Amino acid sequence: MKNIFAVFLILLALPVGAKLFLEFKYKGEFNEILDQISPFAQVVYKELNVGFDGRIELKELSITPNTGFNTISVSLIKISGLDLIFHFTAESKIKSGEFPELVNMDFVDFRLPAVLYEEFVTKQSQECRSLETSVLYSIAGFDEIVGNGKLALDMRSPDRAILRLEMSDQISNGSVTLTFNSLLANMGSVLGGVMPLQSVNYNYYLEEQSAGTILDYCAKQIEATREEYLAKVVGSDKFMLDSFGFHPGIEAQSAVVEFLKGGREISFTATPNDQVNFLNSENVSVEQLVRSLNLTVALDGDPLPLSISQSIKDQSNSKIVTAESENRVKEFKRRDLKELMNAPDMTIQYNNKPEVTRKTKRQYEPASLSNILDFIDKDVRVGRTKGRSAITGRLIAVEQEVVSIEIFRYGGTMTLTVPVKEISKFEVKTQ
Predict the structure, then answer these.
(1) Contact 337/224 with Cβ under 8 angstroms?
(2) Coil, strand, or helix at residue 186?
(3) What is the pLDDT confidence band of residue 69, given thresholds at 50, 70 and 90?
(4) Are 202 and 175 in contact (CB under 8 A)?
(5) 155, 205: one domain
(6) What sign results for the dihedral spanned by CA atoms 88, 159, 299, 291?
(7) Domain range for residue 414?
(8) Residue 426 in contact with residue 368, Cβ under 8 Å?
(9) 214 and 363 in one domain?
(10) Which pLDDT score is estimated for 266?
(11) For residue 368, what pLDDT band results from cuts at 50, 70 and 90?
(12) Based on the domain organization, do 155 and 293 belong to the same domain?
């Protein structure tokens, strides 16, 4: 009987000892990492636990950057799906290509200042001028992003492994799902730019009340109604180009307009071709890359046709032409609503009034769009399709299939934009 009791105590002590050993080991390793990043941020946590089922829990983690930003915090980070034995054999198993079948990482009650996200997003575009710069937390009335997240890896079928990230916060919820062949995911293929992806799916749902607040704010910026903002700004080609880098087609454009009304889920799905090489994509045009990804769009599960507009190309190397004048205007005021309604495809900004008059008759000669970069800061005249009047002014930028022209009107200067696909004639002033 004593022998049986002794064996029982030993069996009971083994998992307890393993748990304590792993907690000591991981705390030491984690503290070493914290020491290394201390010059950049101060990181503290309340406790680190290892469960008898192999789960790891990190509680009340907070990160305070030394740059002065507010603290980023997470109430709980939990890794589950690992048994105690795997913790002791992980290194050898991973080297041999063995992974746990199901691993989950949960982020419970994470909090970060909205400014951290919004400063990054709005560096490339103004508020309300693209999809990502419209869905901002500060616009919806929140200075802090509060949410939950989950990262899950399913390796039950290694030839069709699934990596899924889910996030939810005060205004939205979204998910990204990658399906890939883990048997081909070796470092050589990754470094070569060939990713063994089978599909990529992105879903995003915008809460209706927050969407209404956003639309009211954006409409106010242009002194218009919600409907006018959706039709004239969100429904413009420039909004699509600034949001995606290409024009996804009329149906997808309409889906984005409906999505921003709130209460709808928009989805993007890609099933890349085997030959897609992400590291060599600089020699591939946007439309070629998008087509090779086999992109599809859906609104509330209903698939929509996706048509890719043609890009401007330099005939010498077939690359997308992008350029911007060094003197491009950066400070703007708003145009009035009457002018906006008369020019629906143009930007809605104008800068301070200069003292300029033009009395001499302009003389122009035809020029090729393929050489448009040679005429930055030159006076040009751009004819437009669909019987619309030509635009005459100074060419200040050509970027992402959109030409920007500074014109003189109402005693001041304004910046207008024209999608390249709508240019019927391009002329340059000779005197």
Answers:
(1) yes
(2) coil
(3) low
(4) yes
(5) yes
(6) positive
(7) 323-429
(8) yes
(9) no
(10) 94
(11) confident
(12) yes
Residue 88 inside a domain? The answer is no
**Total structural domains within the chain:** 2
* Burial of residue 282 (number of CB atoms within 10 Å: 0-12, 13-18, 19+): exposed
Question: Residue 218: which of 309, 296, 127, 88 has the closest Cα?
Answer: 127
Question: Is 254 within the bounds of a domain?
Answer: yes
- What pairs with residue 303 in β-bridges? 298
Q: What is the pTM of this model?
A: 0.64
CATH of the domain at 415: 2.30.30.180
Residue 404 bridge partners (DSSP): 397, 417
- pLDDT over 50 (residue 279): no
Closest to 323 (Cα-Cα) out of 331, 334, 314, 333: 314
Q: Which residue has the tokens 């890609």?
A: 270
Name the token pair of 188. Answer: 């050589």
Q: Tell how strand 302-304 and strand 379-384 pair up.
A: unpaired
Q: Are residues 255 and 364 in the same domain?
A: no
Cα–Cα distance, 14 to 8 (Å, whole number): 10
Q: Which two tokens stand for residue 62?
A: 């907070």
Q: Which residue has the higher pLDDT, 349 or 131?
A: 131
Q: Is residue 186 part of a domain?
A: yes
Give the DSSP letter of residue 55.
Answer: -
- Which residues lie closer than 8 Å to 424 by C-beta, 6 or more apart? 383, 384, 385
| DSSP SS3 for 82 | coil
Instruction: Look at residue 336 and tell me if it is in a domain.
Output: yes
Contact (Cβ atoms closer than 8 angstroms) between residue 247 and residue 240:
yes
From first CA to last CA, the distance across the chain in angstroms is: 110
Between CA 354 and CA 360, with CA 356 as vertex, the angle to 5 degrees is 160
Domain check: are 105 and 219 in the same one? yes
Q: Are strands 72-80 and 102-113 parallel, antiparallel or unpaired?
A: antiparallel
